[in-house]
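Entry:
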Amino acid sequence: MRILKALVAFFTDHGYWAVFTVLLACGFGLPIPEDISLVSGGVIAGLYPEKNNVHIMFGVGMAGVMLGDSIVFLLGWFFHERILKFKPIAAVVTPERYRKVQIYFARFGRWVVFMGRFMPGLRMPIFLSAGISRRVSFFLFFFTDFFAALISVPVWVYLGYYMAHNFDELMKILHRSQLMIFTVILLTGLMIFLFVFVKKRIKRKLNLEEI
């Protein structure tokens, strides 16, 4: 609640550029929840529609998250593992976290990018690692992330917009929505794991039969 109120006050004073800048910084690991930032943008559009159009706010939200994600990916792509020695990056992407992400990429490929959009603590390490490893091209990364953002960004922006005049109820819905999204992510991840596992088993069986 405190973070939400602080962001709403900040965004009210500075408008679209403040929303864009905070979301861009979130892409680099700023310890402010991206979903709260998007909800806050929706809230000021609901409270002050004469100054903030909710549809423009949605566009600003998409631009902020996509630019931040893309820059993080390209930093990994161009600087490779050297970027991990940069102290601000090293504080977020530890060697242990980087190794785990590489294992996920080896197992699930581009699906890791899609799932990363819904994982606040792992989003930046996943996107940076995707660039470092070059397991996906930039265009594949961008469109996969864009599709995932089309699911998450409007949910938070329009939730804030429609619930702008009821903060208490908004926080309750926000917590329930986060739990629901986490459950969907968990189930989706399980389905992807089973799909990859079954696919490998079938492929292995076919190879054995050919021998």
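The chain has ten helices and no strands.
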